[in-house]
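Collaboration report, partner site 2.

Our partner group contributed sequences for two proteins of shared interest, and the home lab folded both. The records are reproduced in the order in which they were received, starting with the first partner submission.
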Amino acid sequence: MLGNGLLGAHLWGSKNVLNMSIGCASLWDHRGGLPWSPEQNFKFIRESVEKGDIDRIKEVFSSKIQDGNIARPTLIPCGRVVLHLPDQAELLRYEIELEKGLTSIIYHENGLEKSLLFCADMSTEHGFACHGLTDAMTLELIPSYVLYQKDLGGKPGSLAARGYEPPEVIKEDSILAFLQKMPVDPSFALLLKRKGEEFSLDFCRGAETVEELCRKTLPAFSVLQKASETWWKDYFQRIPAIEAGEKDLEETYCSGMYKYGIMTNPAGVTPGLQGPWIEDHMLPPWQGDYHFNINVQMCNSPGYKAGLFEHLMPLFRMVLSWKESLRYNAKCFVGIDNGYMLPHATDDRGTCMGGFWTGSIDHACTAWIAMMMYDYCDYSGDFDFLKDEVFDFMQGVMNVFEKMLDEEKDGSLTLPISISPEYRGTALDACGKNSSFQLAAIHNLARNLLKTAKILHVEPDPFWLKVEEKLPLCSLYGEGDKQEIALWDGLPLEESHRHHSHLGGICPFNTIDPTDPAWEKIIFNSNRRWTGKGMGEWTGWGITWASQLRSRLGNAEAAVLMLDLWKKCFTNKGGGSLHDSLFWGFTEFAFCNIVMQMDATMGAVTAIQDLYAHDINGVLHFFRGIPKDWKRSSFTNLHLPGGIIASGEFCKGKTTALTLKAARDTTVRYKLPDHTGLHEITLKKGEAEVLHY
């Protein structure tokens, strides 16, 4: 896998044929979707649920069909380069020099090993370049229109069936190109120019004719390779280093950070489910869209502890560019002018995909993005962004929740209709009172608003304080010492489920402290049921989320085991991250392992970071996820909340070194697994405390 944040390429093949599948993260066919309407309001949903009228709910939230058969926006496949090596040649393996961004495809010919080198333009002005061609090698450039038609055998669903005309194509000795017109969006094209031992490949939008396209000058391999090496050298010098003594874990971290650099390149676009690596012969699963109920968040999550704060900004800029439509959504949903509401699945314009009513009303999606924005400001110290953009966004999200909450006779607050992501799908009983996931999101938002008010020296809204005092932290099931966290009132976890949403107060929302003695028995019971229901219906990203939860629960060995299971079950030979298991026997989700998603890979990277350090209710816990029998593990320059940059070492269950450096004036509260009690130190900006044990 290589790319630059806008474009992605998969290199794959066998024998003497190497394929280069080209995808583009911004290549949207924007037709279809579900513009929000006044019918889609909280009162209507509540009344319909009470009446048992599920058909009316589904009708109101169904996608709007356009052009006869277009229900939803989708990313569109782009095309493929096919490189034919001499008949006697055979592909052997690939190698990646991470700090150069250079991929080598090794092949065997006439008793010798030879290489083809590939790199990408990280400025995104251009695409890819290859070096190492010989006169005996030939190239093809195949448009997705042709690949898709061939793959389906002309069945409905091809680009032709979606209203696409055949592309314009040029095939010359040194130039291959095609131009694909789109029904309503600007055209797209691929241009390949070959010269001597190399070729350059570019992606273009908006060209009128293929002849116009071919006049474009493309950079030589040496130019792109030098710029790429400079970019990647800087990138890997910045990211934290980890040492685990576990080869697979270290490889997952390093290769994952490489892919993170590609897919979140600030010059590119916000990564969806698959980043820029879109299939070339079919529409991507789930339209390749933005799923805001965990997947987008997971795709972007490594940037915080890695200190790659500029890599998070494309996501925030995209969401904030939708503010007008998000205000309209809130107006329709709860009748206010000062709210923001984000449905769980959208295209790059914020258009709701529709057809999944429980996702459309999942307001925790908006709260989760608000949390990510606040965390960015907390980690980076960018309080101008907090003041200018984030505070308003957080307030707007809370204004919607305020209208959704009821006040009971005793003054307590309740959420009468709420969902737990994807639990029971779109059935009438797929909602209930006081979803633990939603309650955790609301409390996290209230706490961040109160902290922001303090930072910005403004008066807090009394409602935020009321949330903290009157809204339960979660829904509890059972009595006395048998209490456990429920999905919503009256519903304990019934089955193995890929979304561990009822535990969202532990991670990601960090509103319940599993180390608090008052929660000890509840957490034990919840953990026991969750474990007992098993992993039989988990997907790839569910496994890596489970690792994060296990770290916070103090189950270090299980946290590492989750990562080992993920790598063995949910990655293919090329390191591709699969939604479904690679084989039967571990999970029911093992019937469609061609579906590649990047959320689990990025979740694995974040889970590895969490093994070394994570925050629980304002207290930093170091090495809580490191098994006590590991001989030596260490990390350097891990960024943490409050502007802390930490390095440390842990050997055979003992903390042997810890350094805390402050990027701004701060007070650090922390715990260590081998030392009792809470530690606290105050640091000035630029000051470092070296602690020896």
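Second partner submission, folded after the first:
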Amino acid sequence: MANMIQIARDQVTQLTQAAYEKAAAEGLLPGGQEIRGSVEVPKDSKNGDFASSFAMAGAKALRQNPRAVAQIILDHLDLEGSLFRHVEIAGPGFLNFFYAPKWYGEVIAAVEAEPETYGSSDEGKGSKVMVEFVSANPTGPMHMGNARGGVLGDTLANVLHRVGYDTWKEFYVNDAGNQIHKFATSIYARYMQLLVGEENYEFPAEGYQGEDIREMAKAFYEVNGDKYKDTDESVWEEPISRFGLERNIPKMQADLRKYGIEYDQWFMESELHSSGYVAETVEKLTAGGWTYEKDGALWLDTTGLLKAKYLREGKTQEQVDKLDLKDDVLRRANGFYTYFAADIAYHRNKFEKRGFDKVINVWGADHHGHVARLQAALDGLGLDGSHRLVIVLMQLVNLLQDGKPVRMSKRTGKAIALHDLLDEISVDAARYYFNNRTSTSPLDFDLGLAVRQDSENPVYYVQYAHARICSLLGRMKEEGAEVKAAAEVDAALLSAPEELALLKNLAEYPEEVRLAARDYDPSRINRYLTALAADFHRFYNACRCMVDDKQLQAARLKLADTVRLVLANGLNLLGVSAPEKM
């Protein structure tokens, strides 16, 4: 769990405080002052690895100008055995700390000690977090948006687990409601057209188009013949919808499994209805005074809930009054509960029944208006949805082929399906690409670039760095040079700019993992790996490993192997392979 940058940062504070107390004991500075200076990484490495503002922050309380305070602190710093070799005064009184070889050696040792879990921490403290993602309607093939949401949710869950959260991956199956009725109606129409001809049975205007519906109708006919010809909807709707779901859901599971995604649970919306949980949830909202009846329907006072939410969050009454807020139907006049009612019940189930501390949903950006409404409804149930429900919104994907838009699927005539995509490119390329930008940015996915084997292809670039190191280690082993343990390597010999840059980058990995979890942005891992690969290629071109100086050779070989371990670690976090040969 070693975060060598944080360890060094904390040591700057400790060393500075110890120097101040020593100077105060000698009467050179007033004692007993609590001084809170910052410790930052300078933009220019010439100004050290850390800059402390202790002297400037404490100048007034210590009754001396900042540079005088800085000089006294510098004179009393004891760097013996520390992670720093020397300290300089700069500007108005900054204390600039420079790493010692010991720090670089401990970076290597930290990776060696836990290569597969390097970057882990206990920041999550075992808190239970559910990540719900994809949750596509089971009425047809999954498309490109699902492909992006799949890797985003899966990788985010991996990152959260790495920093100490107890994570759970879930797919919410919308196997009830209007879309399932439309699904069954569409299949039945194609079924009837098989029996009486397309010209003799009208396809519903709002029905689901696509070859998959025709194929489903044909399969239904092959099993049932004309059993359901000209029967009432109450007779055919349930068996047709069940028939379709029993075939579509396993296809979705197989596609996602091929994509490297396994869920802890596939949760069925129908269970919420059949168990009475939706009705019970609506009753709880009514008991809380948050519903009213109008035109035979039961409505949620979304306006009141949102106003209360926004006032708690710091908006003024005047600002809230200007918002265009609308209420939501929970139960229609025909007695059927709406999708929103089921969604509230589902999230109540997550928090109240299953005890998750936090829930993260990965949604398309078109669901933006639904976020605050759902959070407010959960607030109305006393579940603090405004803080415990996090929505990661995801922008659209533009599919390109050599720079030109690709719009049609070979199989469905609609959006590109996930199984079509994985027929064209590798799972590694798909997972890396779809996680290569922050979720809030639109993503251009170029099929031509994704299969290229050159440095323009980011996944190839990173994987090639790993394979290049494996090849190097193999050649060196043939020459009798084995990778030594960190304790047997002299890190002080790694002094070239390319070597130091590589070591610093290795040390940054735990912080990148932490920030990826904090910001719900696993694309940070992609950017880190690309930068690490670039630093390795620069090191490889500038610093030969096969040299006469055996100690230097051992140090460089160990450095290369350490990079290999971290590249493999990061790729594994993304669900991408780390090939040894390319």
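Feedback sent to the partner group on the second submission included the following. The longest strand covers residues 166-173. The longest helix spans residues 233-258.
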